[in-house]
Amino acid sequence: MIPYSTQDIREADIQAVVTTLRSGWLTQGPAVEQFEKALAKAAGTKYAVAVNSGTAALHAAYFAAGVKKGDEVLAPALTFAATGNAALYLGAKPVFADVDSTTGNMSVADARKKITKKTRAIVPVDYAGRPAGLAAFKTLARKHKLVFISDAAQSLGATYRGKPAGSFADMSIYSFHPVKSITTGEGGAVVTDNPEYARLVKLFRSHGITKDAAHLKNKKEGGWYMEQQALGYNYRMPDINAALGTSQLRRLKSFIAKRAAAARRYDRLLKNIPGLILPPQDSAANRSAWHLYPVRVDAAKRRAVFDYLRSRGIGVQVHHIPVHTHPHYQTLGYKKGSCPKVERFYSTAISIPLFPNITLRQQQQVARELKKSLAL
Question: What is the mean pLDDT of residues 68-87?
């Protein structure tokens, strides 16, 4: 089976983890800070705070943004459920916007219509690794005094207007699941230029407890003293994971270059196939991290194409099930039909295999079988 994506672990990654295992620090040690410094540099921000998953990064960013019960968080319906779930964790209401039918990224026009007095944060998602319209969302956020959080879980290594895509929002979040641009096994991070947001994320990831003397309410206690100042969680990233992340970051540019090259090969292999829509190509202003290569087929054929490809050893997947259509969200009152472009996009999308070390032979096999499936 050719997987839709997979990690690339080399001997240097293994040795980085082994070194950490022998260091005496398995968690809350120096490897996390080293990873954070390297990540901030890659993201083009002043601060990076590592946590144990992309979901934890969303939760922490929403907390730092001041999201609370009664607030609304505006996000696209075409995303993994965690983008909405993290708002629910804080008692807020996710409000789902429709998407651009070409890119799958959140529609600025539809987002604008759904802003209310309760909206606290706006959270576009870089679908498939392609940066959303970050400049337009930043303008919209400033106009309505919203916190701009970029769900960049799929776009580490992408660029927007010549800069790292994660450097445009008030906060951007990353995921380091094995299929992402780099992996820490499981892991995530929040990056920002705002020192207060960074402080609050650090507080939240460690039970809401701080030992930082500069921020203690009671400054009369001894060196053992720590304070819980908020209801946080144990979202810390272990040093083992951070060591792997630092090693992986050294190859981030190579990973993205290989993904982009594979995407261009697909563009050539799949062009002019009847009934097949390819994802947008890169431009000088917007360069995808190519987390996914989502093709579009006729909705009536999607299931048959999917099943055929799986039967032929092609590990296709679908990204994503619209959040508002999940059974849990249905129990909360969300309705199908509320984001029609998302639902149409979902009904036609198939993610075909794409990862840094995919071979030309594998891609030729995917193209051959995909063409056959559409002709059935």
Answer: 98
